[in-house]
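hey
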């Protein structure tokens, strides 16, 4: 499953991207989280799992359910991308669709787990989530940059559950405090798929990160377009947000941007943003 590629980008003097959409199951960073969430549970004999997810983690767990033969019921908001709903059906997974936000369905998923005696994996507070990235993502970045004689000086990561940014922050806080971890969050009132504001994270350490950059949907889209036109790859909006955040404070330090997933799941959302952009430009 790992490592995922580290690609040098053509948007600055010394910028690299961790391409998490090379993970095979969900084509996202959530493959790491999913595996770490279930590994110990399966070893303990558990075979029924519940999880609230807006999409990527549900898809990763559904794929692992096919491999490890466990029962899995995802709870997803009605606002989840059409891609995820179709993919879950292809995998033979029956999902519960409710509400407009993942946070609205978390209590419902927990209650259902209690009633059915299933394990609620709870990516929002489960320490195995950040541990996945402490154990794998952070070490890969060190090894991959080290192979070309470089060392990470700054890392940009978007905030979702807060899992991957917490894992990176913990690792580099222990390994080398000079490495700056920059949190990227949606601007107040903006909605970017897979992203939340820091105060919505269940991991307290995220709130200790000193450098936080707000990004709007339009800025995230601009980041997606820049990477497509400079590097020829189609990245998701959360990846585009990290690009936009980097451009606001870019310098010559060795920088890594975490690209959680690719564009293809979010075609409907991106199309709407492009239409809005075209409308604004025509006024």
């Amino acid at each position: 499953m790992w490592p995922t590629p580290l690609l040098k980008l053509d948007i600055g003097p010394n910028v690299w991207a961790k391409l998490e959409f090379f993970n095979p199951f969900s084509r996202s960073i959530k493959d790491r989280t999913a595996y770490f969430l279930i590994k110990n549970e399966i070893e303990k004999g558990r075979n029924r799992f519940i999880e609230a997810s807006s999409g990527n983690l549900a898809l990763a767990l559904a794929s692992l359910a096919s491999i490890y033969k466990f029962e899995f019921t995802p709870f997803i908001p009605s606002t989840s991308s059409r891609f995820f709903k179709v993919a879950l059906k292809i995998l033979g997974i029956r999902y519960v669709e409710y509400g407009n936000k993942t946070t609205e369905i978390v209590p419902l998923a927990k209650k259902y787990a209690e009633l059915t005696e299933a394990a609620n994996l709870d990516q929002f507070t489960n320490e195995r989530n950040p541990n996945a990235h402490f154990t794998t993502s952070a070490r890969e970045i060190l090894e991959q940059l080290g192979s070309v004689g470089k060392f990470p000086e700054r890392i940009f990561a978007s905030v979702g559950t807060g899992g991957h940014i917490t894992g990176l922050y913990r690792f580099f806080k222990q390994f080398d405090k000079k490495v700056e971890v920059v949190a990227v969050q949606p601007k107040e009132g903006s909605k970017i798929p897979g992203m939340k504001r820091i105060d919505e994270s269940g991991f307290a350490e995220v709130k200790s990160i000193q450098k936080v950059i707000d990004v709007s949907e339009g800025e995230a889209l601009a980041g997606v377009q820049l990477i497509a036109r400079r590097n020829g790859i189609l990245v998701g909006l959360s990846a585009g947000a990290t690009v936009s955040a980097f451009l606001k404070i870019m310098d010559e330090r060795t920088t890594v941007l975490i690209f959680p997933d690719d564009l293809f799941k979010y075609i409907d959302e991106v199309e709407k943003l492009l239409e809005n952009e075209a409308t604004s430009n025509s006024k």
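The CA atoms of residues 78 and 100 lie 6 Å apart. DSSP finds nine helices and ten strands in the chain.
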